[in-house]
Amino acid sequence: MELIYEGKAKRVYKLNNEWLVMEFKDEVTAFDGLRKEVAIGKGRLAAAQTAFFMSYLEGNGVRTHFIDWDGDRRITVRALRIVPIEVIVRNYAYGSFLKRMPMVKPLTRFSKPLVEFHLKSDELHDPLLTMDDITEAGLLTREELQEIINTSLRVNDLLTNLLSTRGLILVDFKLEFGFDGSGRLLLADELSGDTMRILRNGKHLDKELFRMGASAMDLVKAYAELNALLGIKS
Ligand code: ATP
Ligand code: TYD
Questions:
Q1: How far, in Å, from the CA of 173 to the mean position of ligand 2?
Q2: pLDDT at 228 over 90
Q3: Which ligand number lies closest to the CA of residue 87?
Q4: What is the tens place of the pLDDT at every residue in 78-90?
Q5: What spacing in Å lies between the alpha carbon of 1 and ligand 2's midpoint?
Q6: DSSP assignments along 20-50, one per residue
Q7: pTM (two decimals)
Q8: C-alpha span between 2 and 175 (Å, rounded)
Q9: Which residues, judged by CB distance below 6 Å to any ligand atom, belong to the binding site of ligand 1?
Q10: What is the mean pLDDT of residues 124-137?
């Protein structure tokens, strides 16, 4: 398979004209790659989480790029034209929200889920975008943007409910979307502890642990704990 992209968390291979293979690395990075460590076992756990959540969403009517998981670090997905926007849904105040709104107490529950958009650009540090920015720059039409918002809120409802059955709180998460060959919008990329904040009795079962100073090994243990709680075989 031809390696077509290597990012911080994954390698992307071309399987054929329609399908890609995404390989989750046994590595963890934070602070724009400033802190980076080997995390043996993380790739498989994060691939398993992505397969689990994407399959669950598909089963509940959300179109995703997910096709198959190899039981290890790789998943097969539909190749899409990725929209260069990160969509963030927030249920509780955390992370960059608190940085720009320091008057809000950490972990305040919002009156409704917030949806926000950031440009995918490491050089610019993923700046916050308005809806007008997105449509005026021609990244999406109003209708496409509305579809992404509706889908993101539906994903939030589904995941919040699923996690709450296991005593877990979904604080916030990041989504990416892409267009397939017929111009349909599909949910893309990953859904794992790297891209979601999940709390159990106040403890993070996500990458925040590593950002807070925990070792890579403790992070892998937390991902394994999350998988056990969700009944994910990995
Ligand atoms: P960032 O998350 O900021 O893009 P990165 O490039 O380091 O950082 P990785 O997760 O390592 O991220 O790389 C995976 C890449 O694959 C991302 O650029 C993502 O947008 C892209 N991608 C995800 N799903 C698909 C898909 N179905 N088709 C094409 N590209 C995809
Ligand atoms: P956010 O609070 O905006 O950023 P930071 O992680 O810098 O504090 O993150 C909101 C959610 O989105 C959180 O669950 C982590 C996830 N996320 C990503 O997966 N990738 C990203 O590049 C960013 C900025 C956030």
A1: 7
A2: yes
A3: 2
A4: 999 999 999 999 9
A5: 31
A6: EEEEE-SEEEETTTTEEEE-TTHHHHHHHHH
A7: 0.97
A8: 26
A9: 5, 7-10, 12, 20, 65, 77-80, 82, 120, 176, 178, 188-189
A10: 97
118 CA: nearest ligand 2 atom:
24
pLDDT of residue 33: 87
Token pair for residue 59? 């089963």
CB atoms within 10 A of CB 175: 22
For residue 21, give the nearest of 8, 2, 46, 49 by alpha carbon. 2
Cβ–Cβ < 8 Å for 94, 172: yes
In Å, what is the CA distance from 91 to each residue of 138, 147, 157?
29, 20, 10
Kindly report, residue by residue over 33-46, the tens digit of the pLDDT.
Answer: 899 999 999 999 99
Ligand nearest to the CA of 126: 2
Confidence of residue 107 (pLDDT cuts 50, 70, 90): very high
